[in-house]
Design brief:
Length: 675
């Protein structure tokens, strides 16, 4: 039985015997990457991570010199100006960290970085998968921080927030400051009010009562003129726009109650209601803050799409007789002996139209462009949701943020990063949040008329009670203003729509317009694209068919040979073979045929594994034709050949998601049509 890696829970390949002692127990590791990370965790005294974690870590990726070089590039001042905040010799950056699955991961990262000299602070948010880091630039470099994070199995890159998120972050700090000041002072006013209430029944001296009223008055001033300021500005804007909002009656109620209580304090007659003003303002601020948090979180989800963009790109600089060619060239023939090419690593945001970049297997496309040389398959799941890679060749378009497969391609940039298709997606998401659907417009319209009705009712109340009970007319009118304020009506609808949009964005669904939310309940037919939607998009081997009855190969040997070849491929179909890897078998003279298959030599035998149609083209013999009736070439399967003789067929299936049945069941129950 295949053992599991203690670090990432993946199968330990045959022939691998890597152990790490964790809490006095020898634990198996699947690769040297996981072993190195586990040793780092143990050596730094952080083994508690394995005790408190709720999910296994991601499989480790060993850093290659090229990746280390890219990390060093991030230390350059030109590139850091894009994402670094500098103050008095200290630098601050937001990092987006892949691989965080639980709070234990955040704790592990914080504990690991806390050991770095020169690091001032580190705060990891497990839900947003971001970390805010402050450090002294003369003591530690950003590349050292990234290396420390990557040494424990997480991939970190600097994150440049968009303008909306920066503005929201500033507003959030201001909101929290208002809430903090208003909340603390409100509690003090409430405690004093308790003393006044009890004093009314215990014959409190007039001197003490006046003193407590003045203290309440002083403590309420910051709440009214600082904490409640957003309501006043909102009311002024609404009046200038010749419309009414909930801020109008709220502002009137707060100011009237405060000035009436202040007058009662100064003249030493009547009652004071400083505690009501404080509590009313504080509770409304909480409502406003929760609405703001929902909108801010929606913007954060949209901005997270930015992390799909790579920070660096490999630019190809070409020259002819030591003269650099113009960036506006239409195409470049790198096979031309008269051309000298140099690869340099540059910031992806510095790419402009006409630049030539080389994208290697497994790398992320840095900009929208057209392939000028090469053949590969690209994963465009982040754009279309389709998990299967798409074959791309010369003159085909590629998009920033998509992942290159198993071929080298050379791309000519056609759009700058701020004009890429991914940037347009982000803007589309932000526009959808700003667009109001009919229900939100109806809510605003009702609230506007309701506010007008409240003001008219308050005026009528004041006139009536002024004639019947003048001494209570003011307080009764004030009570009507406070009790009938349409706070819930004005806050609930936009908050609900924002939360719904955020939830959809998290699920990878982009809303183009607000009307979509209203139309969804009326849909009676649902069409599902199976791959990556109802399925995980990760293939598993469902069946292995031995095609040569006289062959001496066992099924275990067949899988090990296939794994030795497929380990060189980045294609999704190659991934299921990884767990069958036998490190005693090594393939030589391996050639990866992009989108087709892999060829190589093992123990002096020539093997080929790939698509049925591709192998049919390679084999001029008729032996492969004899199996065409037994192998379903339309299924996602591949054939293994030894010395041009087919020996095995592999059938792969896309695993159905655990929640697929839960998704479809309610639709069937409600008699919806499914396609």
């Amino acid at each position: 039985m295949t053992s599991k890696c203690f670090h990432c829970n993946e199968a330990v390949p045959t022939g691998i015997n890597l152990l790490v002692e964790i809490s006095h127990i020898q634990q198996s590791m699947c690769c040297i990457g996981c072993q190195a990370i586990a040793k780092t965790i143990v050596e730094n005294g952080l083994t508690q991570y394995y005790t408190v974690r709720t999910e296994h870590a991601h499989k480790a990726q060993t850093l290659v010199p090229e990746q280390l070089q890219k990390n060093k590039l991030l230390d350059e001042a030109v590139l850091q100006s894009e994402f670094i905040y500098q103050d008095n010799g200290c630098k601050e950056a937001i990092l987006t960290i892949d691989g965080i699955s639980c709070a234990a991961c955040a704790w592990l990262i914080e504990m690991q970085l806390d050991k770095l000299n020169g690091l001032l602070s580190i705060n990891v948010n497990a839900s947003s998968q971001r970390a805010t880091v402050r450090w002294q630039d003369d003591a530690v470099q950003l590349s050292d921080i990234l290396l420390a994070i990557e040494s424990i199995g997480y991939q970190a890159m600097p994150f440049k927030a968009n303008d909306t998120e920066v503005r929201n972050k500033k507003q959030s700090k201001e909101f929290i400051k208002r809430l903090g000041i208003s909340g603390i002072l409100m509690m003090q006013v409430m405690m004093i009010t308790v003393g006044l209430y009890f004093g009314a029944f215990a014959d409190m001296s007039q001197h003490s009562k006046i003193y407590l009223r003045w203290v309440s008055f002083i403590l309420t001033i910051p709440i009214v003129f600082y904490g409640a300021l957003p309501f006043y500005t909102g009311a002024i804007k609404a009046i200038k726009a010749k419309r009414l909002s909930m801020d109008v009656p709220v502002s009137i109620a707060i100011l009237l109650a405060f000035f009436a209580s202040a007058w009662a304090t100064m003249t030493q007659q009547g009652e004071v209601y400083f505690e009501s003003v404080s509590m009313f303002t504080f509770l409304l601020l909480i409502g406003k803050f929760l609405e703001f948090r929902a909108r801010s979180h929606a913007a954060q989800v949209s901005a997270n799409l930015l992390k799909l963009m790579p920070m660096t790109a490999t630019k190809v600089v070409t020259s002819n007789n030591n003269v650099t060619l113009s960036d506006n060239v239409q195409s470049i023939d790198l096979a031309n002996n008269n051309l000298q090419t140099t690869e340099i690593i540059v910031a992806a945001k510095q790419l402009v139209q006409g630049d030539i970049v080389i994208i290697k297997p497994g790398e992320i496309v840095p900009a929208d462009g057209i392939i000028t040389s090469g053949l590969s398959q690209l994963n465009e799941a982040m754009l279309s949701g389709e998990q299967l890679p798409i074959s791309k060749t010369v003159n085909d378009k590629v998009f920033a943020g998509t992942i290159n497969g198993d071929g080298n391609i050379i791309v000519q940039v056609k759009q700058a990063s701020n004009q890429s298709f991914l940037s347009q997606l982000i803007r589309l998401s932000e526009q959808s949040q700003a667009h109001k659907p009919k229900i939100a417009k109806l809510s605003d319209k009702i609230a506007q008329y309701f506010v007008a009705l409240i003001l008219l009712t308050s005026i009528a109340t004041a006139i009536y009670w002024q004639q019947h009970m003048p001494e209570e007319a003011f307080w009764i009118t004030l009570s009507v203003l406070v009790a009938t304020c349409p706070c819930a009506l004005s806050l609930a609808t936009p908050t609900g729509l924002t939360c719904a949009t955020t939830r959809l964005n998290r699920a990878g669904i982009m809303i183009k317009g607000g009307h979509v939310m209203e139309t969804m309940p009326q849909i009676n037919c649902f069409a599902f694209d199976k791959t990556g939607t109802l399925t995980t998009g990760e293939f598993t081997i469902s069946n292995v068919e031995l095609l040569d009855e006289n062959s001496f190969y066992s099924q275990e040997q067949i899988l090990a040979i296939a794994a030795a070849l497929e380990v060189h491929s980045e294609h999704p179909i190659a991934k299921p073979f990884t767990e069958h890897r036998d490190h005693n078998l090594t393939a030589k003279q391996v050639t990866v045929h992009s989108g087709q298959g892999v060829t190589g030599t093992i123990n002096n035998i020539d093997y080929a594994i790939g698509k049925f149609t591709w192998l049919e083209e390679l084999d001029s013999l008729s032996t492969i034709q004899t199996i065409s009736s037994n192998v379903n070439i339309n299924s996602p399967s591949c054939i293994l050949m030894a010395n041009k003789k087919p020996i095995a067929a592999f059938y792969l299936v896309d695993k159905i998601r655990d929640d697929a049945f839960e998704t479809i069941a309610p639709l069937n129950k409600n008699n919806k049509t499914l396609l």
